[in-house]
Amino acid sequence: MTTNRVPNRLAREKSPYLLQHQYNPVDWFPWGEEAFAKAKAEDKPIFLSIGYSTCHWCHVMERESFEDEEVARVLNRDFIAIKVDREERPDIDHIYMEVCQALNGQGGWPLTIVATPEGKPFFAATYLPRDNRGRMSGLLELLPELARLWREERARLINNSEKMTRWLQQRREGNGELPGPELLARAVQQFSEVYDPQYGGFGKAPKFPTPHNLYFLLRYHHHTGDQAALDMMEKTLQAMYYGGIYDHIGFGFARYSTDRFWLVPHFEKMLYDNALLAIAYLEAFQLTRRDLYARVAGEIFDYVLRDMTSPEGGFYSAEDADSEGVEGKFYVWSPEEVLQVLGESDGQEFCRLYDITPRGNFGGKSIPHLPKTGISATRRREIEPWRQKLWARREERIHPHKDDKILTAWNGLMIAALAYGARVLERPDYLNAAEKAATFILGRLRREDGRLLARYREGQAQYPAYALDYACLIWGLLEIYASSYQEIYLRQALELKDDLLRYFWDEEQGGFYLYGSDAEQLVSRPKEAYDGAIPADNSIAALDLLRLARLTGQAELEDLVRRSLECFSREMEQSPLSHAFLLIAIQQIHYPGEEVVVVGRKSAPDTRQMLSTLQQTYLPATLVVFKDADGDDLADLIPFTREMKMQGGRATAYRCQAFTCHPPTTNPADLIRPLSEFQPLE
After folding, report:
1. Which domain-ending residue is among 367, 396, 425?
2. pLDDT over 70, % of the chain
């Protein structure tokens, strides 16, 4: 990148993505009133470019076009150019991505939009080269033509933009009915139809992990005994770990695989993928007790706590695919490099195990990966010193760019994962990390009036938090509560729930809007239930509210979830696979499971044993509450615990379902047996 120019307006921003463009000759504006006022005053259309700092094709488009003087001259003359970081402004990105998908049948980043000075779009594309390339128009041909159309055929462009805006503003209509359990079976059947039995995963290349699909399949297996659902989940988890999408030297997963085999990743690593995948491996470990799954989850946490954690305790967003301008360069190896580090004998064996060959599998070098059968746990422990030596050598390379902004939503997911891992793997250090991150978010990303904010970087918190931020952080706080049983986290979750309803709930039709009623109002105010790489905000919020309803007895929260599910019912019926996380909410509505209250003394061995037994068992339909016999009464938060007491001076568990409790037990084995057998609500 040329840096001998005077920086443009983006130099004043905090976004790493915007700062990457601060020396472009393009006269970039950040999103804001200044840009739109200038567009109106000069009667120019908006050229809107949306991306993120670890996006490979965003880098390519910058090098080819936005650093090019000729492209910049055309943009500066005929357009008002605006840069947006999609991770800071998912509201803007969501709206214009819908436009791109509607016009082109697909989307992606960088996202390129041309719009009226009011922000109403009439053109959309993703990556565009500088010059024409095959059937792909280049910017140097496209931009002058769009400028000509704006001058000479403006009425047509404005008419198109008005139609598109009206389409964006259409209200979502459900069919007014709560989907039944039969939709769950239909979803599993559809998953089986797109499942790859040879390599795991769903669909063709590129393959994304989409861990929430696996959560749904595991729950369906647990509830029905359907072996095929479990097989699909396990095969996918194992294949992803064996493949090159997993970083076998430094740990953590890349964003997706470019091929069917999980071999060649798109090398960027995202915080959200690793959080959601850690939970998937933890759940699989709980159910199957396969040590592989516990180890992978632990290695993900090793990576995050080592490389992606700020001194204050928050978690960074992502690491780039590129280093030194080359995709994947940081991660690949040649046999010569391995032998140089490990010596002839050990090096040859490591290359054999991880398929590092002279020919290579990516640009003449090799992405380490394992054969389908993997290696034994014993052998893996034996070669751990080799991995550590290679990691130390890799640390000497030039690292990919790290996007060090801290996003509330993604932090909420990692907080949830770490807190869950703390109880499943019995690792108090994971709980400490989760609590530290939650304290940081609630202390530094919250205004004085309590309103949550979305992004923190270099001492600055900005942007009113989105529904996803609230939903993910509530999830994280509930997982900390489930691991620590400190009621402060439940109280904080309830406070955030109140704000989620205040700012985002649609009183008329149900469901949560993407951005708040107090935030900047854009050309439309969407609601999302479609699961992408992250489950939709409405999906996570639905499960949060169901959990809070069952914990606190606030039945009105379940009523809200039912209304939300009715709002999205038509979409779910049309495309169950796109709403897997919301299907889990449907499952919980129809089959709500049980609540277990353990009454005991926190430090007593029998209490610890009972709680540990519950936490080590896969019980997705069970909520566990701890009532300290020597502590504060929980009745103001969880009213149904008021009369529950220890029996005979021993830790005592109460099983409750549908506001009815079974006789208490002091034997953990007696407790687990009926919980593991799915009990539908009559």
Report:
1. 396
2. 97
